[in-house]
Amino acid sequence: MGLLEDLKTQILIADGAMGTLLYSHGISSCFEELNLLNNDEIQKIHEAYLQAGAKIIQTNTYGANYPKLARYGLEESVKEINIAGARIAKKAAKDKAYVLGTIGGIRSFKKNTISMDEIKRSFREQLFYLLSENIDGILLETFYDFEELKTLLSIARKETNKPIVTNVSLHEIGVLQDGTHLSDAFLELEELGADIVGLNCRLGPYHMIRSLEEVPVPKHSFLSVYPNASLPDYRDGRLVYETNESYFAESAIKFREQGARLIGGCCGTSPKHIEAMARTLKGLRPISEKIVKHRPIEVNSIPEPSDATPPLYETVKHRHSVIVELDPPKKLGISRFLEGAKALKEAGIDALTLADNSLASPRISNSAIGSIIKQEVNVKPLIHITCRDRNLIGLQSHLMGLHTLGMNEVLAVTGDPSKIGDFPGATSVYDLSSFDLISLIKQFNEGISYSGKSLGQKTNFSIAAAFNPNVRHLDKAVLRLEKKISCGAHYFITQPLYSENQILEVYEHTKHLKTPIYIGIMPLTSARNADFIHHEVPGITLSQTIRDRMNAVSHDPLASELEGLSIAKSLIDAAYDLFNGIYLITPFLRYEMTVELTKYIHAKQLVNAERRFING
Ligand SMILES: Cc1cc2nc3c(=O)[nH]c(=O)nc-3n(C[C@H](O)[C@H](O)[C@H](O)COP(=O)(O)OP(=O)(O)OC[C@H]3O[C@@H](n4cnc5c(N)ncnc54)[C@H](O)[C@@H]3O)c2cc1C
Ligand SMILES: [Zn+2]
Description:
There is one protein chain. The protein is of the alpha/beta class. It has 2 domains: 3-258 and 265-280, Alpha-Beta Barrel (TIM Barrel), CATH 3.20.20.330; 312-615, TIM Barrel (Alpha-Beta Barrel), CATH 3.20.20. Helix 10 (205-212) links the parallel strand 6 and strand 7 (222-226). Helix 4 runs parallel beside helix 6 (78-93), helix 4 (39-52) runs parallel beside helix 12 and helix 7 runs parallel beside helix 8 (146-159). The radius of gyration is 30 Å and the shape is elongated. Bound molecules: flavin-adenine dinucleotide and zinc ion.
């Protein structure tokens, strides 16, 4: 008889946690390395689970892959650790229990920390060594990223006919991180060839039972469930779980009622939990029919307010559009800022862009000031959002707040790192990259939070992303743009450009993209300002001609300003025929300069319109 054959008629008990058990024994080094250093300890744990009633145990190889072992400098030991892990488990099982070779998910919520190619490479390596030891099946567990699991399952299915168990991990009841409903996920996994589909880790029995209530008994696979002991608690600097064996015994009955046939435990569980479940389920046959609970996910689109202007990405597709950056002040007091916002509004800008603590220095919160100008000046705020100052919780709360305040224009950027700003020792959070943040906002627009939970409403953010053309290889920067588009960016805003040639070059490199681009133009204010930008701002070089022009008027502040404006106007002339979007950056709150440039652009628009009219 084989594992799958047994599951046709029986419920099989699996083992519980390995990692947290070792941790509770005081071990905090690499758990998988113990396969080499202390195989007795691992074998004893397997034996304790077998003794408790487990008929299926898993190898101690959860994190025995190249990227995870590399954290301990053990990346060259993938082969030895996996082979040893399989041998220890088989030795403990003595052919009386099945041994699954465990491979854990790599990506948690940060998608871009590691590429899929790297994940595939490391997976193939681990899979190869586990299969070489003639184990009874493969256990793919703790997958938060459904794409990752599907990709790896497809690879494994081609490599082996042995049973494959796929366990996903959920943050929320019944739904995966990308919003896929659990029942749909199981169907997809079945189609890709999983023999057993289920849940493990992160949630305890309560949330797992509620998740399984929404899932029919699979037709072409078996259902597995490996709950954590409880939600974790943080005590004295350690994660601890409740010990609750009798609760597990009761839960085992409910898992059976939900159609589970392979039942084990994950973090925080011990042989006592497994023993309690094995005892309770002894002699009970699995069920094949159940009533499925349907809990519809309700996501409503919010009605558009009747006076709503179109999002910037629409506006800029159809006509020239000017947006202006006016940085929130570094000191308290916003009167000059408000004057500027009003003047720019009167000059006819489409939005005022508000940086998020640019150059990593604290400024008045851009959402606070954005809300004020929206209400008092009736100008559209475009809120920059960096990944530097907020973790995944803060970012989501921020987005919900912006939506609630009706501020729908956002720019998603990584953010200048703290070390370049006023507080070099402050943490740069970077839970998400700019790509992840763009994807998150797109997911919000579908009404789904990062963890897959319904937000109750869809947001309607218009998503801008940053484009830095001041790099040596523009081709590579354009590849990043393409990736940002695939994540959900609606349009781009560039760093300031200072040469007509560069503007043309940007056009040539991006003309294949359908995504609109706002070209950044920041007027120079003085020869010193020009020198600073040329010598100290990474990636930006000013031509000798521009620097000579600014130097020639260095004695006269007014003439300097006029020369700065004149240079900016030439750049606008170069950009105007190639791009609809112009992004003006106000230097040092000198909004008179960006007002002048906005008027200049509108005058060009008028002249062009007249010309078109005259020419019919
Ligand atoms: C319009 C605009 C507004 C901005 N507003 C703010 C703000 O309000 N607050 C703030 O703190 N910062 C702001 N920045 C700065 C921005 O966060 C950083 O300059 C950032 O590195 C560039 O944009 P991104 O975050 O989308 O970078 P990404 O494209 O995500 O790049 C992130 C990292 O990758 C590197 N990288 C980028 N391109 C390449 C390439 N071609 N090859 C190799 N590596 C590359 C970069 O060095 C960077 O560290 C803004 C930038 C722009 C263009
Ligand atoms: Zn776990």
